[in-house]
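Inverse folding, one chain.
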């Protein structure tokens, strides 16, 4: 099992000097590791759902220029978000949260489902597809 790292850079396997492109590549590598890992039995998985959540939070921190600058200056970043504060995009990006995503989709309009995130410009469908969350893609 992969142990918890202390910084967003460590979690992604990236360096502080890495470009946005290199951070994105590091994030995609983690997604592919998690995707392969989910095919294993739970006791043989190297990346737990909880650690994948940290991977998502680390990428959210480092891919946003303002959050990255703040982290680089003071070392603070949001590692945990209460489930009730998750956006649809965040729910779609974490396959283990499919039941919560389905529940939220019951109460939203098509406009909200198709809306782009104000910071990333990504739709819910894009976020689900990016992490190969087939069940979420089918729901959308």
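Residues assigned per position:
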């Amino acid at each position: 099992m992969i142990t918890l790292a202390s910084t967003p850079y460590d979690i992604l396997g990236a360096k502080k000097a890495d470009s946005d492109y290199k951070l994105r590549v590091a994030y995609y590598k983690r997604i592919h590791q998690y995707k392969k890992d989910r095919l294993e039995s739970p006791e043989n998985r190297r990346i737990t759902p909880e650690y994948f959540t940290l991977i998502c939070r680390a990428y959210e921190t480092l891919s946003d220029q303002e959050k990255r600058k703040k982290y680089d200056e003071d070392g603070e970043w949001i590692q945990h978000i209460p489930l009730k504060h998750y956006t649809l995009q965040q729910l779609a990006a974490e396959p283990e949260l499919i039941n919560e995503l389905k529940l939220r989709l019951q109460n939203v309009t098509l406009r909200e489902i198709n809306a782009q995130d104000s910071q990333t410009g990504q739709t819910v469908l894009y976020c689900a597809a990016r992490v190969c969350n087939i069940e979420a893609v089918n729901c959308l």
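The chain is about 55% helix and 0% strand. Residues 20-37 form the longest helix (18 residues).
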